[in-house]
Structure formats: C-alpha cells, structure tokens
Fold:
Amino acid sequence: MMSTNANKQDSVSPDCKQTIDVEATSVGAQSDRILKPNYWYLFWKRAFDIVSSGLLILLISWLLLIVAIGVKLSSKGPILFKDARVGKNGKDIRVWKFRSMYIDAEERMQEKLTPEQYEQWLKERKIDDDPRITKFGRFIRKTSLDELPQLFNIFGGTISVVGPRPISRMELDGNFTKEQQKVLLSAKPGLISNWAVNGRSDVTFDNGERQRLELEYIGKNSLFLDLWLILKAIPAVLRHKGAK
Structure:
C-alpha cells in the first residue's frame, strides 16, 4: 500500500516555477486578449465542431461499434469510461472514453505500482507499463481509438475539436499558477491540442514545456491555426507519436 504527501501536490514544482517566471509577461499579454474574446471566431469554431463531429459520428459508427465490442469482450466492466476533467471557466465536466483499464484499476494501482510509477502518475496521470490497462486497452490507447467517444462531447459542446487538452483538477492545481489557470480556463478544452500534436506523452509538466505549448495556443483566435493543428494531428496519430 502506497502513501504520498498530499501537501506536496498542492504546489508547483521548482522547475515549473522557473519556467513560469520566464513566461509571466507572455501570460499577461494573453490575459489582455482573453478579456476581449473574438465572438466571430467562436461562432465559426462552434459551427465547425457541430458539423464535423456529427458527420464523423455517422461515418465511423461502424468503427465505434467494433471498438465497443472489443472492449466488452476483453474484460468485465462498462464499455465507456467517464473521466472527470476541468472545462471552460473551471466547470467540472465528464469526458467520454472507451474503457481501457480493468474495473479494479485502483486496487491494481496501489498493489502493483512502484513508488516511481506512482509519482509519475501523480504528476502526469500516465504511467509507463501501466498494470491497470487491459491488452485491448493498450491497443486502443496506442492508436488513440479510446478517445473516439469524445466526438459526442464535441457535438454536445463540452469540448471542442481544437483546444488545450482537458486535464484533471489535480493537474491544474499542481502545474499551473493562478494566472496561468485563468488563461487556460478561458478556452474550451479540445480533442486536438498544440501539446498533443507537438509531443503528447513525450512532453511533460516537469520542465514547464507542456504548460507552454497549451498556453501559447490560447488567445490567437485563428481558424487557420485550428485547421493546421488538425492536419498535423493526422500523421501524429498514424505514427502513434507520444501515445502510451
């Protein structure tokens, strides 16, 4: 059974703080732009979200069915998993995924993880050689098929096609300053993000690089940038770049 110092998780790591200090000016500039949102951009962004997610749900309904059957046959438990995340303006949201873990994942985590793995999970919410993941779960994570149900989140308006990746409240409080949180939560989270396209699991919170990649997207209000990130995401997914 593992234990951890809860107080440790409430503060930003020294490495992150150093990076945060360097970027304080740029974050302040982003805050100025956030106070004046581009409603024309937000209108077209939402229209694109509805049309694209609706069409994709129809076109890949056969694939959704196949993955759902695979999840059901691979292990006991529900097909879908609702992941608690933080949405726009700090609202609690539930992000849908195909279940990739055993139903006794928490028990497995406490029994089988090394202290190093547990520390990694606390920081990144991801673990190398995670014993909680099923064999089929490893496949759908590697291919990003586990995230397909988020198309329904997009259609419903909880998240967008492009935006900073939705993170847990623990990740938010442990890796972003209050000023950075204000910037990050001003945007709707997305299925595709600047971080996901440019590193994903290969870029972490430890040195502040993930924070930088997510924050630099916000405030640009560019449909061309959104399209560019979508186009870049296609080869990144096909190459399984940073996927675990």
Summary: Residues 160 and 190 are 4 Å apart (CA to CA). Strands lie at 80-86, 92-98, 160-162, 190-192.
